[in-house]
Amino acid sequence: FLALKIANVNWQSKLNKAAHHTSDYSSTEAILRRGQAFNITLNLQTTVQYEDNFTFIASTGPSPAESQQTKAIFNLSEEDASGWRATQEPSEPGCMNFTIFSPANAVIGRYKLKLQIVSGNKVSSTLLGQFVLLFNPWCPNDDVYMANEKERQEYVLNDSGIIFQGLEKYIQQEAWNYGQFEEDILDISLAILDRSLNHRQDPAVDVSNRNNPIYVSRVISATVNSNDEKGVVEGKWNGKYCSGTNPLQWSGSVTILRKWYKGRYKPVRYGQCWVFAGVMCTVLRSLGIPTRVITNFNSAHDRNINLSIDKYIDISGKTLHLTEDSVWNFHVWNESWFIRRDLGSFYDGWQVLDATPQERSKGIYQCGPASTRAIKEGDVNLDYDSSFVFAAVNADYVTWIHYSNKRKERIYSDTRKIGKFISTKAVGTNSRVDVTANYKYPEGSLKERRVYKKALKLLGVRSTEKRTKITRPRRRSSVACRQNMTQPAQKPSISGKLILDASPVIGQDILLTLALRNLISDFKTIKVNLRASAILYTRRPKAEILQLSRSIKLGSEEVKEISFKISYSQYKNSLTDDRKILVTAVCETKQGASLLVEKDIVLQDPFLTIKVLGPTVVHKAVNVQVTFTNPLSEVVTDCVLRAEGSGLLKEQLKINVARMAAMESSTVQFEITPYKSGTRQLQVDLVCTHFSDIKGFVILDVAPA
C-alpha cells in the first residue's frame, strides 16, 4: 500500500494573506476570501514521482454534505459542479504545489481541507489543515463586491472610526475602536453565528445558508443583542448601571466581544444604540461584508407604524406617557453593501441593519437588511423591515396638550422634524458625510409627498389622518381630537423661541432667554409655564430640574424676553450621563390659544488634550501625555483614565487618577508600543463618578519598523 508521505503542509500564509487582503488579521491561520485562488505546498518525505489520482475534499460545519454546499469533492484540473477546483503547479523536487479555487458563492466559515489519494484499489486520506473563508468585496462575482478601492479600504479594512451623536444642531464626533483584526475577534464573529437560534434549530441548514450576505447579516442583527438567544450585548435605557458598564463608557467593540466570549456567552451589560451598531460593524467587517455606521437625528420609534408620532404634554409642559411612540435625539444603525437577489437589482447597494432591540421582526428582535432604495421609494412592503426604517426617517411629529378634563388639543404638527442630517464617517477622513438623500427625496417636494402617500397606502393607514389635510408647519389648532384631525388651522397669534446665551459647559450655570412675539395688534396677557427636565438621548424625561410660571403682558406686535437660569446646584444631581436637558415652555393666552416652545440642550465636556511625545514606529515605545481639567467647583476622587486603540495597545489600559482639586488641571503620562503600521486611532476616556465621561482621540500615522 503506497501512501503519499507528507512531511508538512506550507499554507503560504504570507503570500495568500497579501493576495486576499487578510494580512491585518492577527491569527496565524490561513484566512482567505472566496472566489479567489490560493496556493499550498506539500513537502514530501520521499521524492517519488506519483502518478496517483488526487482528490481534494473541502468541508465546513457540523455535518458537511455536497447537497448543502458545505462539502466539495474535486479532482485536479476538473471543476466540480460546486465550483471548487485545483491545479498542480510546477515545483522543486520533494514538494508539490497546488492552486485551489473556491467559488464566489461559497459558504463562509472555517473549513477542513483533506487530500485523498487512490492508488490502484487503495485509498488513503490526509488532513492538510484548516482555513477560514470570508466574503470577498474584491471579487466581481461575489454578492458583496464593491468596485471602489478607497471604499473597500474604509468599509472593510478600517479598524477604527467615528460614530456621530448629540443633537441635530449640535452634532458630536465619538471615536470607536472596531478592532476587527485583533486577536480572537474573527473566531468570536464565527462563534456569534454558531450561537444563533437558527443554528441551534438546524445547524446543517444554517451553515448552508452562510453563503448569502442577506442571511448572515440578518442573523448577526439578531445575535448582537441579547434578547432572544443570549446574544452579545444587553440593552438598558433606564435606572442605574451598577450591575454592568454604563453604555457611555465603552470606546470600542473588542473589549465587549472578548468579555462575551471569555464569559461563556453571557450577555455583556450594557449597551445602547451606538454600542449595538459599533459591535455589529466589527463583526460584519471581520467576515468581509462592507459595513458602515449611520446616525439618524430625530429618529422616530413608531410602535404601530402609522407614520405618526404623538407626543402628549400637560399644561405645565410635563411629558405624559400616553403612547408607546417616541422620538430619539439620534439613533444609530448600520448599512452593509451587497446585492439583493431576492428583490431585484434596483434594490442592490446599501442595506439597513439594526441590532438595537426595538421591535420584533418575525418573532425575533432583529431588523434588516432593508434596502435604502426601497426606503427612498416608499416600498415599505419589501423584506426586511423597510416599513420600520421608513417610519424612523419619515413619520410626522404631532404634539398634543392633554387637559385635566381629558380634553386634547393638537397644537403642533411637524412634517419635517423627523429624519434629519442622516450621517456617516467619510471615506478616508473623519469628516461627516450627509446621506439623507439616500433615504428620502427633498422635504416638501412633489416626489417626497408621492412616496409618502404610497407608503401610507401600502401600510393601510387612512390618509385622511395624515399630511394631506394638515397645514405645515402648524403651531395652533382649535380643539381637535385624534379622530378629527382635518379641521383647518387657525393662524397663530404668538410666536416664541428659546435662546441659549452661551454654550453651556458642565459645572456651570445655564443661561436661557425666552423671546415671545405678539403677532397681532391686540393686547394680551400670556401665562408661561416653564419646565426643565434631565433626559436620555431617547428624550425620555428622567428627573425634573426646574419648574416656574410667569405672567407676561404683550402689547400690539410687541417682543418681550424673559431671562432665567438653571444653576449647577439645580441640575447636578438630576443630570443623566447623556448630559441632556429638555426645556419646554407652554404659553397660554386668555383666549385659550396655546404655543409650545422646546429646546434640547447638551452640556459640553471640558476639553481633554492628547500629546504624543515623539515619532510613532512599529515596535518602538513612545510616551503619550494626556491633560484634562476637573470642571467642577468641588474636589473629585477615584477617576480612571482609560486608553485603547487597535494596532497601538493590545488591550485597554487603565490608570487611576486619585484626586483632583476644584477646577484643577491634571496630566497623566503612559507608554504605547505600536504593533501595526498605518493610520491608527488612539482613544482616551476619563471615567469619574462625579461627572460623565470626558473623551478624546488622536489620529497617529505609524511608520513600519
TrEMBL record:
<dbReference type="InterPro" id="IPR002931">
    <property type="entry name" value="Transglutaminase-like"/>
</dbReference>
<dbReference type="GO" id="GO:0003810">
    <property type="term" value="F:protein-glutamine gamma-glutamyltransferase activity"/>
</dbReference>
<dbReference type="InterPro" id="IPR036238">
    <property type="entry name" value="Transglutaminase_C_sf"/>
</dbReference>
<dbReference type="InterPro" id="IPR001102">
    <property type="entry name" value="Transglutaminase_N"/>
</dbReference>
<feature type="active site">
    <location>
        <position position="354"/>
    </location>
</feature>
<dbReference type="InterPro" id="IPR013808">
    <property type="entry name" value="Transglutaminase_AS"/>
</dbReference>
<keyword id="KW-0012">Acyltransferase</keyword>
<keyword id="KW-0808">Transferase</keyword>
<feature type="binding site">
    <location>
        <position position="394"/>
    </location>
    <ligand>
        <name>Ca(2+)</name>
    </ligand>
</feature>
<comment type="similarity">
    <text>Belongs to the transglutaminase superfamily. Transglutaminase family.</text>
</comment>
<dbReference type="InterPro" id="IPR014756">
    <property type="entry name" value="Ig_E-set"/>
</dbReference>
<dbReference type="InterPro" id="IPR036985">
    <property type="entry name" value="Transglutaminase-like_sf"/>
</dbReference>
<dbReference type="InterPro" id="IPR008958">
    <property type="entry name" value="Transglutaminase_C"/>
</dbReference>
<feature type="binding site">
    <location>
        <position position="448"/>
    </location>
    <ligand>
        <name>Ca(2+)</name>
    </ligand>
</feature>
<feature type="binding site">
    <location>
        <position position="396"/>
    </location>
    <ligand>
        <name>Ca(2+)</name>
    </ligand>
</feature>
<dbReference type="InterPro" id="IPR050779">
    <property type="entry name" value="Transglutaminase"/>
</dbReference>
<feature type="active site">
    <location>
        <position position="331"/>
    </location>
</feature>
<dbReference type="InterPro" id="IPR038765">
    <property type="entry name" value="Papain-like_cys_pep_sf"/>
</dbReference>
<feature type="binding site">
    <location>
        <position position="443"/>
    </location>
    <ligand>
        <name>Ca(2+)</name>
    </ligand>
</feature>
<dbReference type="Pfam" id="PF00868">
    <property type="entry name" value="Transglut_N"/>
</dbReference>
<dbReference type="GO" id="GO:0005737">
    <property type="term" value="C:cytoplasm"/>
</dbReference>
<dbReference type="GO" id="GO:0046872">
    <property type="term" value="F:metal ion binding"/>
</dbReference>
<dbReference type="Pfam" id="PF01841">
    <property type="entry name" value="Transglut_core"/>
</dbReference>
<dbReference type="InterPro" id="IPR023608">
    <property type="entry name" value="Transglutaminase_animal"/>
</dbReference>
<keyword id="KW-0479">Metal-binding</keyword>
<protein>
    <recommendedName>
        <fullName>protein-glutamine gamma-glutamyltransferase</fullName>
        <ecNumber>2.3.2.13</ecNumber>
    </recommendedName>
</protein>
<keyword id="KW-0106">Calcium</keyword>
<feature type="active site">
    <location>
        <position position="273"/>
    </location>
</feature>
<dbReference type="InterPro" id="IPR013783">
    <property type="entry name" value="Ig-like_fold"/>
</dbReference>
<dbReference type="Pfam" id="PF00927">
    <property type="entry name" value="Transglut_C"/>
</dbReference>
<feature type="domain" description="Transglutaminase-like">
    <location>
        <begin position="265"/>
        <end position="357"/>
    </location>
</feature>
